[in-house]
């Protein structure tokens, strides 16, 4: 049987949900979880519930804060003695930065941001979107081991009845080595909400928002339903929203459970970035807007009238 | 300073992608090629840094097909000094691409003081090459960079992470910087720039010249296919102000009872 490790990150007291998704998908395999830095009791409990065998918590000098070099040096040192065939992580900001460097330390290959995968005996085979989701392809890794894989958050989903593992915590030490690019400061984002790439619900605005201040009505809806607010390229290029909010081929590719597109016509590069959303609602004045071809529920109407009514309806439903 | 910029040539964002006959890649015969949009920010940053640091040169490196060199010509027309093309397929995997770029930089005979690239190529969306290249060249890297300040090799770089938060990095010495949208406003190539670009040196190397062989392949793709089409959804008319409230209430109800997402 393949020897597998899953690298996890924590968010507050919890481990990131994408780790649990990966563990759920690997049910039946023996899987170690690796973290740099402490995991709370609640986090350890969740990891065990979803199938973690050993949970290796790595600590050492220079590892209190993330740095690409420090984390990759420490993980290289730890993984080298482990004989792992596969190492997984979530395709998060940190995972995307760290895993390419780590994989090349082993001269090994990495499959980026798969949305599904299978383990056929000892062999991994994944599915990943290319061209921002305009097409899909099967991906396999070849060459020296371990093979590295990152998984897009929200794409596998959590299993309804997970298979538990031993969840045995093991304290390990490693070292960051020389760090030439170090974080000297972290500036918090405007929003404490989940990032677009990890959000379960997204409310997005397009060119028809007309100005930055009008995004307030989307913020109000988002607050009611626990959503993160996004924007189309047209809205970003017009200066209504920062690029961090852009959904699409030159922004973020997202796959929430619910995507509400407000005043977005549906340019091909936007559709590419959000078409894997499970349920899509579109609000647009133009009945022929391309966004309606992808929408499960299309509302032809003026977003400035429809959105506030919808927010009130959500309040009634959830309040 | 010796500044290098890695660029990729990719299908235009408006391209309708179609898998090829045997599903080994996409149909590329009628594609309009452009410089990868994120690489434009890298080229612009290189030119800004050159202007601020007298005596610098900007060398653009691309790994891809020789038939169409739109990306390199654009970079030269914007103001880069010279270009290196490693002639290969346009869809090498990240490991091979990084190794080819490393080989091309070494062949140039210049020791890099700064290497810039786009944070991701919008064809394979792997987000790997800058970090892999940095590791292969034993350099630090900072990715998804939206802020770039400093003189020479003493830089303060801002990296955007989840939720729009910013990690501020201090780096001194050579570094690989992977650029994101928002870093700067790329200039357009001027007509004199386009004329001058034709006289600038473009060196073409083979994969063999830069020490890359089939044994460097790490990723295998197959079964390229279009994503499954969704069945047609339901459409509601809320243009009549009198009916709006009930239409919206119906849709919200369906989100709970039918779609079960609220």
What is the overall shape of chain B? globular
Shape call of chain A: elongated
- The CATH class of the largest domain in chain B is Alpha Beta
The number of helical segments of chain A is 9
Sheet with the most strands, sense and barrel status of chain A = 7 strands, parallel
How many runs of DSSP E, i.e. beta strands of chain A?
18
Amino- and carboxy-terminal Cα gap of chain A:
50 Å
- Please list the strands of the largest sheet of chain B in the order they lie side by side: 9-8-7-10-6-1-4-5-11
Order of helices and strands of chain A: EEEHEHEHEHEEEEEEEEHEHEHEHEH
For the biggest β-sheet of chain A, the strand order reads 7-11-6-1-4-5-12
Main sheet properties of chain B: 9 strands, mixed
Radius of gyration of chain A from the CA trace?
21 Å
Question: Summed up, what is this model?
Answer:
The complex is a heterodimer of chains A (319) and B (262). Chain A is α/β, with parallel strands linked by helices and 319 residues long. Helix content of chain A is 27%, strand content 29%.
Characterise the protein shown here.
Chain A folds into 2 domains: 4-173, Rossmann fold (3-Layer(aba) Sandwich); 196-318, TPP-binding domain (Rossmann fold, 3-Layer(aba) Sandwich), CATH 3.40.50.1220. Helices cover 27% and strands 29% of the residues of chain A. Chain A is elongated. Chain A has 319 residues and is α/β, with parallel strands linked by helices. Chain A has helices at 17-25, 41-49, 68-80, 93-105, 216-225, 233-237, 268-274, 291-294, 303-318, and strands at 4-8, 10-11, 14-15, 31-36, 54-59, 86-90, 110-114, 116-120, 123-130, 135-141, 147-151, 168-173, 182-187, 201-205, 228-231, 258-262, 279-284, 297-300. The model of chain A has no long low-confidence stretch (mean pLDDT 96). Chain B folds into 2 domains: 2-216, 3-Layer(aba) Sandwich (Rossmann fold); 230-262, no CATH class. Helices cover 27% and strands 29% of the residues of chain B. Chain B contains 6 helices and 13 strands. In chain B, a hairpin with a 2-residue loop joins strand 7 and strand 8 (154-160). In chain B, helix 2 packs across helix 5 (191-197) and helix 3 packs across helix 4. The radius of gyration of chain B is 22 Å and the shape is globular. The chains are: A alpha/beta (319), B alpha/beta (262). At the A-B interface, helix 3, helix 4, strand 7, strand 10 and strand 13 of A face helix 3, helix 4, strand 7, strand 8 and strand 9 of B.
